[in-house]
């Protein structure tokens, strides 16, 4: 699978302010896709957790240096065991967003794909 990447970033650059600025580039759709980024040398800060019916989705917390950030991958529950077994570090591709839940706003990544930096072999989804 080919993944379009717009820029390489460090996780500490993905803030509420930077996500809001990116949102000004919208509306997003087929003719104007949401920006996609890659971050390298990223570790799991917590074990991956499956969620949703049948564990179809995965919730993660990534860490790069002193920055931790939540991520979600829809329809990719099988990645949980693969990522936990590998242990990282990883290169991850994602679209950043803001999760609004119960009156709180937090930056959250929508994980698109990942590669183990141990093997540099892309994941087959």
CATH architecture: Beta Barrel
Shape: globular
Approximately how much helix is present in the residues? Answer: 10-25%
Strand order of the largest sheet: 2-4-5-7-6
Low-confidence stretches: none
Mind describing the biggest β-sheet? 5 strands, mixed, barrel
What is the total tally of β strands? 7
Report strand %: 35-45%
In the CATH hierarchy, what is the class? Mainly Beta
Number of helices: 2
Radius of gyration in whole Å, from Cα? 14 Å
Mean pLDDT: 92
The arrangement of helices and strands along the chain is EHEEEEHEE
The CATH superfamily name is Nucleic acid-binding proteins
Protein structure class = mainly beta
Please supply descriptive tags for the structure shown above:
globular, about 40% strand, about 120 residues, OB fold (Dihydrolipoamide Acetyltransferase, E2P)
Question: What's this, in brief?
Answer:
This protein is mainly β. Helix content is 13%, strand content 42%.
Describe the structure in your own words:
It is globular, with a radius of gyration of 14 Å. It has one domain (7-26, 34-116): Beta Barrel (OB fold (Dihydrolipoamide Acetyltransferase, E2P)). The model has no long low-confidence stretch (mean pLDDT 92). It has helices at residues 16-23, 79-86, and strands at residues 7-8, 37-44, 49-51, 57-64, 67-73, 90-101, 104-116. The protein contains two helices and seven strands, in the order βαββββαββ. The longest helix is centred in the N-terminal third of the chain and has 8 residues, at 16-23.
């Amino acid at each position: 699978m080919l993944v379009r990447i717009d820029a390489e970033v460090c996780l500490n650059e993905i803030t509420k302010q930077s996500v809001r600025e990116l949102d000004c580039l919208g509306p997003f759709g087929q003719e104007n896709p949401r920006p996609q980024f890659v971050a390298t040398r990223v570790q799991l800060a917590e074990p991956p957790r499956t969620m949703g019916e049948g564990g179809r989705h995965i919730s993660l917390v990534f860490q790069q240096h002193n920055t931790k950030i939540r991520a979600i991958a829809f329809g990719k529950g099988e990645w949980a065991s693969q990522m936990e077994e590998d242990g990282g570090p990883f290169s991850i591709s994602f679209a950043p967003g803001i999760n609004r839940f119960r009156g709180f706003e937090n930056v959250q990544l929508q994980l698109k794909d990942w590669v183990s930096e141990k093997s540099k072999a892309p994941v087959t989804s």
